[in-house]
C-alpha cells in the first residue's frame, strides 16, 4: 500500500509530462501541416508571399481595467473627425520616411476605439455648443445652446461640476478662449453661445481649480463698459497668470488659477502651432502645469483639454495648419499618457471630437489616386499670419498689385505665379511619370507603334518636370480674381452666393492660396462649415471599456460619470 501511495505522485507527474509532450507534438504537426498546405505558387506561376502573422491578433487589453477612475482626462479635438487625424498620420509618415507609410498618432493606438453620433436637436450637422452640452452634460440640445435642455427651459449639470462636488479638483484647458463654446459646456448655462460676458461671469463662480489657455471674449462686455472679467475672476479668488513668468511660478500652493498665454493670436487664442516662436507656451505646457497643481488631491481630478484651433484651421481650409494642430494636440495628450504610465490602475484618458469640419478629404479629381504631402512643407505660416502680413502691406501701400504680393505668396505658401504661364494641369500619365521618375527612352531603332509609345513616355517624363508649385493658367486667373476682392473694403466686396461659396467669408486671396496648395498636395475641401459624420472615440485606462462600440455623444458624459462613480453626485 505504501508503495502505491509513493508511486501516485510519480505517475501523475509522468502523465502531465506525456500530455504536454503530446500537445507539443500536436502543435508541431499542425504547424507542419499548415506549412505544407500554404500555397507556394499560383496557377499563373507566381510565387506566393504570405502575410506577417507575428503581429498581435488582439488589442493590448492589459491597458484597460474595470476600476473606478480617480484621475480623468477628457480631450476634445474640436473639428477633429477622421480625416484630419488620417492626414496628420500620412503627412508625418511620408515626410519623415519618404514612403507610403503612416506614422500613427499616440491616441489612435489606444486599445479602445468607439464611434459616437454628434447630431443635435436642430440638425444632423451640429455646432460646438450643442455637442459640448451633449458630451459634457449628457443632454441633447439646440444648435448654439450651452448647458440647457432642448426645450431651453432647464439647465444641465456637467461631468466637471459633478466631479467638483464629489471632491475632485477640476481643470479646464483650451487653445482658444475660455468662454468659447466647448469649455463653456463644462460650467455654463446660456441659451446662446455668444453670451460671452455672461459665460465669463459664470466661469468666475465655478470655484474650479485651474483654467488655462487663451483669453476671454468680450472681457468688458459687448459695450465695453462692464467690469473686466479678469477683475471678476480675481474678486472670486483666482490668481491671474497672464505672463510666462507668472505661469512658471504657479504651483499647488497658489490656489485657484487662471493661466493665460502670454502671446495671443486671433480673437484671444493661443498661437497656431506652426506660428509659435521659441519660448511660447503650448497646450502641452498648460496640461503639464494642470497635472502638477492637481495631482496630489486625495480624491483625484477631472481635466478637460480642448484643441480648438484644429476646427478654426479647417474652417479656413488650411490643411497644413490643421495637420500641425493635430500634432500639437498629440503632444498635450502625451502628458496625460505619461501620467497614466505612473498611475495605470486609476487613470482614464478619453479622446474624441465634437464634430467634423470643412468637408476635408484626402484625394481630388486633379491628382487622382496620388497625394503629394511634401508640397505642404513649403507653407511656413498659418492663414492668420499671412492675413496679418497682407494687411500690413495694404496699409503701407493701398494700391498694391498682384505682382507686389507675389513674393509674399511664394514665401508663405511656396506657390509661384507667372502671368504668362500657359501650361495646364498635369495629366494622369504625367503624374505617373513624376511618380516613377522614368528615364528618357532612346527611340532610335524603334518604329511604328513602339516608337509612338516611347515618344509619348518621353513627353510625359518631360512634362513631369514641371514645377509643382507653379500655378496653371486657370489657377493664376483664380488667384487674380481673389486678389481683386481682397483689395476692396469688406463692405464693397461682391455679396453673392458665388462669392460666399468661393471665399466663405475669409480673406479671398488667403483662402484661395491655401486651397490651391492643398489641391496640388492631393487634398480638398467642400465647405467652410461643419459636417455631420460620426466621430471616433479613443480610450485607455480605468473603465475605458465603457467607450467601446457605437453610441450617442450624450453617452460620453453618462459613461464618464459612471467611470468616476459620480452619477448621483
In short:
The protein has 569 residues and is an alpha/beta fold.
Radius of gyration: 29 Å
> In terms of per-residue confidence, which ranges show pLDDT below 50 for 5 or more consecutive residues?
none
How far apart are the first and last residues' alpha carbons, in Å? 68 Å
- Considering DSSP H and I runs of 4 or more, what fraction of the residues is helical? 40-55%
Structural class: alpha/beta
DSSP strand content = 5-15%
Keywords, separated by commas or semicolons:
569 residues, alpha/beta, eleven-stranded mixed β-sheet, two-stranded antiparallel ribbon, 19 helices, 15 strands, 41% helix, globular
Q: Could you walk me through the main structural features you see in this protein, from its secondary elements to its overall organization?
A:
There is one protein chain. 43% of the residues are buried. The longest helix is centred in the N-terminal third of the chain and has 36 residues, at 2-37. By secondary structure, the chain is α/β, with parallel strands linked by helices. Strands 1, 2, 3, 4, 5, 6, 7, 8, 9, 14 and 15 form an eleven-stranded mixed sheet that branches. The model has no long low-confidence stretch (mean pLDDT 91). 41% of the residues lie in helices and 11% in strands. It has 19 helices and 15 strands.
Amino acid at each position: 500500500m505504501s508503495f502505491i501511495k509513493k508511486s501516485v505522485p510519480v505517475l501523475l507527474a509522468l502523465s502531465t509530462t506525456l500530455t504536454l509532450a503530446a500537445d507539443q507534438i500536436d502543435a508541431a504537426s499542425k504547424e507542419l501541416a499548415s506549412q505544407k498546405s500554404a500555397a507556394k505558387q499560383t496557377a499563373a506561376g507566381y510565387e506566393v508571399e504570405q502575410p506577417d502573422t507575428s503581429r498581435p491578433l488582439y488589442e493590448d487589453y492589459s491597458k484597460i481595467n474595470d476600476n473606478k477612475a480617480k484621475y480623468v482626462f477628457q480631450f476634445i479635438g474640436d473639428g477633429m473627425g477622421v480625416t484630419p487625424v488620417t492626414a496628420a498620420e500620412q503627412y508625418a509618415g511620408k515626410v519623415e520616411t519618404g514612403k507610403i507609410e503612416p506614422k500613427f498618432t499616440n491616441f489612435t493606438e489606444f486599445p479602445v476605439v468607439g464611434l459616437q453620433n454628434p447630431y443635435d436637436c436642430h440638425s444632423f450637422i451640429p455646432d460646438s455648443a450643442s455637442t459640448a452640452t451633449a458630451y459634457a452634460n449628457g443632454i441633447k440640445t439646440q444648435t448654439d445652446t450651452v448647458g440647457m435642455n432642448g426645450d431651453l427651459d432647464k439647465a444641465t449639470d456637467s461631468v466637471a461640476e459633478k466631479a467638483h462636488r464629489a471632491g475632485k479638483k477640476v481643470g479646464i484647458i483650451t487653445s482658444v478662449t475660455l468662454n468659447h463654446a466647448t469649455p463653456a459646456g463644462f460650467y455654463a448655462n446660456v441659451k446662446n453661445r455668444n453670451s460671452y460676458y455672461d459665460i465669463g461671469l459664470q466661469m468666475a463662480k465655478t470655484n474650479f481649480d485651474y483654467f488655462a489657455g487663451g483669453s476671454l471674449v468680450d472681457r468688458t462686455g459687448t459695450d465695453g463698459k462692464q467690469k473686466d472679467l479678469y477683475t471678476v475672476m480675481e474678486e472670486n479668488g483666482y490668481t491671474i497668470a497672464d505672463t510666462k513668468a507668472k505661469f512658471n511660478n504657479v504651483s499647488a500652493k497658489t490656489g485657484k488659477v487662471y493661466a493665460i498665454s502670454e502671446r495671443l493670436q486671433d480673437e484671444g487664442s493661443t498661437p497656431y502651432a506652426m506660428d509659435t516662436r521659441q519660448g511660447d507656451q503650448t497646450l502641452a505646457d498648460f496640461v503639464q502645469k494642470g497635472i502638477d497643481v492637481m495631482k496630489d488631491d486625495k480624491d483625484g481630478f477631472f481635466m478637460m483639454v480642448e484643441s480648438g484651433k484644429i476646427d478654426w484651421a479647417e474652417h479656413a481650409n488650411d490643411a497644413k495648419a490643421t495637420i500641425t494642430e493635430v500634432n500639437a494636440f498629440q503632444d498635450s495628450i502625451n502628458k496625460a499618457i505619461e501620467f497614466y504610465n505612473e498611475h495605470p490602475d486609476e487613470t482614464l484618458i478619453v479622446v474624441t471630437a465634437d464634430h467634423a469640419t470643412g468637408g476635408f478629404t484626402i484625394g481630388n479629381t486633379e491628382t487622382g489616386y496620388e497625394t503629394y504631402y511634401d508640397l505642404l512643407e513649403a507653407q511656413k505660416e498659418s492663414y492668420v499670419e499671412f492675413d496679418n502680413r497682407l494687411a500690413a502691406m495694404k496699409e503701407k501701400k493701398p494700391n498694391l498689385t498682384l505682382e507686389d504680393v507675389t513674393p509674399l505668396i511664394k514665401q508663405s505658401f511656396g506657390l509661384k505665379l507667372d502671368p504668362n504661364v500657359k501650361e495646364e494641369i498635369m495629366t494622369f500619365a504625367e503624374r505617373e511619370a513624376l511618380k516613377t521618375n522614368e528615364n528618357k527612352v532612346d527611340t532610335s531603332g524603334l518604329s511604328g507603334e513602339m516608337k509612338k509609345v516611347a515618344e509619348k513616355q518621353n513627353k510625359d517624363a518631360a512634362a513631369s518636370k514641371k514645377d509643382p508649385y507653379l500655378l496653371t493658367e486657370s489657377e493664376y486667373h483664380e488667384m487674380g480674381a481673389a486678389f481683386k476682392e481682397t483689395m476692396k473694403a469688406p463692405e464693397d466686396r461682391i455679396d453673392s452666393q458665388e462669392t460666399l461659396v468661393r471665399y466663405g467669408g475669409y480673406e479671398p486671396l488667403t483662402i484661395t492660396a491655401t486651397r490651391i496648395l492643398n489641391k496640388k498636395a492631393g487634398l480638398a475641401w467642400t465647405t467652410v462649415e461643419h459636417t455631420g459624420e460620426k466621430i471616433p472615440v479613443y480610450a485607455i485606462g480605468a473603465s475605458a471599456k465603457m467607450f467601446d462600440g457605437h453610441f450617442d455623444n450624450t453617452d460620453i458624459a453618462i459613461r464618464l460619470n459612471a467611470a468616476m462613480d459620480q452619477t448621483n453626485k
